[in-house]
Each structure stands twice: as structure tokens, then as C-alpha cells.
Amino acid sequence: MGLFSDKRAVVAFIIAIPLAIIAYVFVKPIDYNLSLIVFGAALVLFLFGCLLDTADEFEKPEKPITRPKEEKKPKPAEPEEEHAELHVPAVEKPAAPLTDLPIESIEGIGPVYGEKLREAGIPTVAEMLAADPENVANICDVNVEQAERWIAMSRFSWLDTVSEEDAEAIVFATGMEDLKSLSEASAEGLYQKITGALAEGDVRVPAGYKFSVEQIQKWIDEAKSLV
């Protein structure tokens, strides 16, 4: 604190100093004892002012207000993507009998949708192949477009050369929904679309699963033999 930082001390000094001058200059020649009393009062005021001025230096500083740290709220889990990969290891091989392919082997159909479809009489890919899109959509409470994709994948899954992973790639990467479209496609063109969809994350397959132009050509050749 600097000198005269307290207003009360300033007032005390303003009164004390003139009072001391009056006591010494004007009162002393008239009455010595009275001058001592007046001078003493001025001295007391002066000392009182000094005490007020220096008292602030010994005051405890106020504690800074500290706000409690806000706890970071955990980020909500991101919802699963509409066609997140649900791989079924038991049905990896192409040409598996349709009755051996559980309905969950179709990409996007997990335990919840699978249970609803089983209860409705669609337990495997074989039944999905002949299912009505609107019926499937009502059973699973999804839009008809999603149901059509599931049925399209089941159409490709029954080919000897096409696995459930391949069927997913055909539908999501190319938009094809029938064998005629596949039979008229270019193997190189399909390969470019599928690898692009894999890179963008639009199609997901198990780690290590590979696509090749030669394998895609087998899909096309089988489709040609059936249309």
C-alpha cells in the first residue's frame, strides 16, 4: 500500500497538522498548558492517521474465488451405421446351401431384426429370397428401400460363386439388385466400384477378405448362365 492510501487517514492528517500549527503558533503565547493539550490532540490524530494508513498492508488478501472444475461428460456412443458389418464366421464359404445361411448372414440384419424375421417365418436366406419387400419392411419397421437391399443380397447369395460378403459388395457398391444387371456388367468396372466403396467405408468386409477381377468375372459368368 502507498502513503495516504486510506481516506480516513488523509482526513486525520488534514486536521492534525493545522491543529498542531495553531497550538504552537497561536495558543502557546496565550496559554502554554492549553497549547500542550491542543498539540497533544493533534499528535493523537496524526498517529491515528498513520495507523489507518498502514493497517491495510497487514490485511489478509481475499482468497480468489475458485470454481469447481466441470467434469467432462463422456461422449455419447455413436449410433451404429445403417449397414454396419455383422460378420457370421460359420457361413464364409461361397455356395453354402441357402437353408444353411441364417437370416443374419445378410449384411445389416443383426440379432434384433433376425429375431423378428424368424418369428415371421423368414429364418434363412432361402425364405428371404422369395419375400415381399413391403412385408419385410413392416416386420422390421424399416423403409422399403432397406428391405429391397436385403432381398437383393439374398438373390446374389444363392450363386455358387458369391458369398454373403460378395453379395453385400455387389448391392452397396454398384446398386445392382438382379442377376440380369450383374450378367451385363464389366468385371474391371465392378472391381473399381467395389474397391472405391471399400476405401470410402460404404462396404465393410472381414479383415483379410479380398476381391479380384478374376473372382468378379466368375460372378458375371454364372449370372450369364442363369438369365
Topology diagram in text:
Blueprint (H helix, E strand, L loop, with lengths): L6 H24 L1 H24 L55 H9 L5 H5 L3 H8 L3 H14 L6 H11 L4 H5 L3 H14 L12 H12 L3
Helix pairs in contact: 1-2, 5-6, 6-7, 7-9, 9-10
Description:
With 227 residues, this protein is mostly helical. The protein folds into two domains: 7-57; 89-224, no CATH class. The chain contains ten helices and no strands. The N and C termini lie far apart (99 Å).
Average predicted confidence as pLDDT: 75
Q: Strand fraction band?
A: under 5%
Distance between the termini: 99 Å
Low-confidence stretches: 73-95
* Shape estimate: rod-shaped
Order of helices and strands: HHHHHHHHHH
